[in-house]
Request: fold
Amino acid sequence: MQLAAAYENGSGVCKNSKKAFKWYELAAKQGILEAQKKSAFMYFTGKGCGQDLEKSFELFQKAAEQGDTDSQYQVAEFYYYEAGLKDSSRKKKMQQFCETKRNEWGFVLYDSLIDDYNCDDICLENNKTWKQNMALAIEWYVKAADSDNADAQFMLGKIYYTGNGCEQDFKRALELLKKASNHNNERASLLLGLLYFEGKEIEKDFNKSYDYFSKIEDNEFAQLYLGHLFYDGLGVKQDFAKAKEWYEKAASQGNIEAGNKLGLMYEKGLGTEQDFLKAFECYKKNCIQYGSPKARGEAEFHLAEMYYYGRGIEQDYDWALGCYNRAAEQGYSAAVSALEKLKNKMQKE
Reply:
């Protein structure tokens, strides 16, 4: 083990991941727990060896059976993601389900609850293999969660909340998510903040939402929602200047929704001096960034408005038309009527 660690870290010898793997694997064959974990991770990533997920799983399972909490979590992850959809017809159903939930819950909350690989068992109720894998995933998550593994507590809490592979249990879900958050699990704190903010299956509580978001204030979505709380005075005293600070932090991490709110604050002079040019720049930047269709559509709409009224830029109906059209294509409803209004205006002129 010491020689393997020396090659891995470059302690007294040149770093050499292949030699590190060789010695970790030899130690793993002797049943040494840490060596099994190291070898499993190296097989998983392909570092120092060819990637081999089956061997990675096998070694994680050996370590998990020795009671290693981290390995129990990794075994659960293997089963959870193996339960993902491969059949094209089921995958199509999954995508339809996910789109429905995205619209129902909102972009951020949806992404916190649903994985690209899994969805509610409405798609898989007759899939025996899926049920078996999810049952095993839950079994291993429970073992790791009972040993205070925060990642396992988060995943298990999410599973109980969505009912993905088990009976929904909101009370149990909240208990697990709170335990994970108390162990400084960022995903759990974010999800709890969102759930209390949105009031999904639990009563809205903006004070609790503020507390959970404040625990992870470097997270872009926590920054976004802290901005919302100060902007609307929810659970805190309304403070546009503080809202602007949080929106700026989130926008600096590429968050489009925060950028849109920042543009709106410059446009209306909330928490800052009115500045149409800065508002225009915010909207323009957001139009080309990755994010939810709704947020991009909103950015295109506001940019169209700037062109239409000549705010921060020379009035230009052609540019406004293009922006309204793209906003409408992204599903931003206000753009549809604005687009028709502008078309009629241009025809008359």
Observations:
- The chain has a mean pLDDT of 86.
- Residues 280 and 348 are 28 Å apart (CA to CA).
- The longest helix spans residues 128-146.
